[in-house]
Design a protein that fits this description.
This protein is α+β, with helices and mostly antiparallel strands. The protein has a single domain, classed as TolA/TonB C-terminal domain, CATH 3.30.2420.10. Strand 3 and strand 4 form a beta hairpin. Helix content is about 30%, strand content about 25%. The strands form 2 sheets. A 3-stranded antiparallel β-sheet has the order 2-1-5. Strands 3-4 form a two-stranded antiparallel ribbon. About 20% of the residues have low confidence. This is TonB family protein. InterPro entries: TonB/TolA_C, TonB_C.
C-alpha cells in the first residue's frame, strides 16, 4: 500500500455528502398535466380497473424523466405500464441543485391516480 496517496474513508464520505443533491420534499414541483382522459387504457376502462400507481424515476440535470420503475402497483399491469410511459413522455420537473447551485441528477417518487379518471 502506498502511503500519502490515499484519502481516509471519512474524507471520501464527507465529499460524497457535500456533493449529494439536496431537495426538500416540499420543494418538489407539482406535476403539470401528465395524464388526461385519453390516456386511460381502453381495456382497463372496459374492465373497470382503477387504482393508484406509485412510480420512481430519475430526473436529469435538464428536468427530464428517465429510468421509471413501478414501486407500488395499482393492481393493473395496464395502468402501471401506462403510468411509466406517461412520466417518461411528459414529465418535466425542476432539477435538484447541488451546494454550488448547479443542476444535478436526482430521484423522485410520484403517485399516478387512475381513480379520478375512471369516474
Amino acid at each position: 500500500m502506498r502511503r500519502g496517496k490515499t484519502k481516509p474513508i471519512s474524507a471520501i464520505l464527507t465529499a460524497l455528502l457535500i456533493a449529494a443533491p439536496s431537495v426538500a420534499q416540499s420543494d418538489l414541483p407539482k406535476p403539470r398535466t401528465w395524464q388526461d382522459d385519453g390516456d386511460y387504457p381502453a381495456d382497463a376502462a372496459a374492465k373497470s380497473k382503477t387504482g393508484v400507481t406509485t412510480v420512481q424515476f430519475d430526473v436529469t440535470e435538464k428536468g427530464r424523466a428517465e429510468n421509471c420503475a413501478i414501486i407500488e402497483t395499482s393492481g393493473s399491469g395496464k395502468l402501471d405500464g401506462q403510468s411509466c410511459a406517461l412520466v417518461l413522455r411528459r414529465a418535466r420537473v425542476t432539477p435538484a441543485k447541488d451546494e454550488q447551485g448547479r443542476a444535478v441528477r436526482s430521484v423522485q417518487t410520484r403517485k399516478i391516480d387512475w381513480r379520478k379518471m375512471a369516474n
